Amino acid sequence: MKIFLIRHLPTPGNEKRQYIGRTDEDLSQAAVERFRRQRKAEAGHPANPDPAYSRPVYPQVERIITSPLKRCIQTAELIWPGREIMTEPMLRECDFGLYEGKTYEELKNEPEYVRWMESGGMTAFPEGEDQAAFRGRCVSAARRWIGRLLDEGTQSAAFVVHGGTIMAVLEQLAEGAHDFYRWQAENGGGYAARAEREEWNSGVCVLRELHRLDQRSCRNLSR
């Protein structure tokens, strides 16, 4: 099965470089307009592509699963208008607690934030979600959904989720050993991979043939 892990398009908080976790923001109107302008250009309309907004070529897929937060649902609706979307609460972003809505510049001198940074992001956020619990729930949900889709005979599926969700899933499930932060994805970007039913049914839950989501990776996985 072909699997695509896509990070949602930018929100106003993303554009301000804020920590946005539980906050249920809409997409940035500017990001939505850029996306639509690019789509028109790709469809042969006279408007020129926006050189400041280079978007991956998104594949057609059989199933679409998203985080329940609006930014992910809205992104999926833009990419695949009119399609059925399934939401999975366990794939939502981490709750940043007291850091929610703050920027690095606002936090960089706070002792708790410094300790969090020095831990590699592994200590719990003040009044927020424990990192191990966050990563565990993301991986558990991804494994369950991928297993279900494989059992149903699905050939391709997209997960439109959050940057942290993608990093958590691929840290544990990607082929080979990789650090959590190896899997950072820009807004609107992500990764393409493949899962084999026989492996997952035998308990070997591995995502193989990882590529960044771009025209090349989509073309390779469509064979």
If you had to describe this structure to a student in words, what would you say it looks like?
With 223 residues, the chain is of the alpha/beta class. It has one domain (2-221): Rossmann fold (3-Layer(aba) Sandwich), CATH 3.40.50. The protein has helices at residues 12-15, 29-42, 70-79, 104-107, 111-118, 131-151, 163-173, 197-201, 215-221; strands at 2-7, 63-66, 86-87, 156-161, 190-194, 208-212. A six-stranded mixed β-sheet has the order 3-2-4-1-5-6. The protein is globular, with a radius of gyration of 18 Å.
Short description:
With about 220 residues, the chain is α/β, with parallel strands linked by helices.
**Principal-axes shape call:** globular
Number of domains: 1
Annotated CATH homologous superfamily: Phosphoglycerate mutase-like
So how many helices? 9
CATH architecture: 3-Layer(aba) Sandwich
Top keywords for this entry?
223 residues, alpha/beta, Rossmann fold, six-stranded mixed sheet, 9 helices, 38% helix, disordered C terminus
Question: What is the topological layout?
Answer:
Blueprint: E1 2-7, H1 12-15, H2 29-42, E2 63-66, H3 70-79, E3 86-87, H4 104-107, H5 111-118, H6 131-151, E4 156-161, H7 163-173, E5 190-194, H8 197-201, E6 208-212, H9 215-221
Parallel strand pairs: 1-4, 2-3, 2-4
Antiparallel strand pairs: 1-5, 5-6
Helix pairs in contact: 6-7
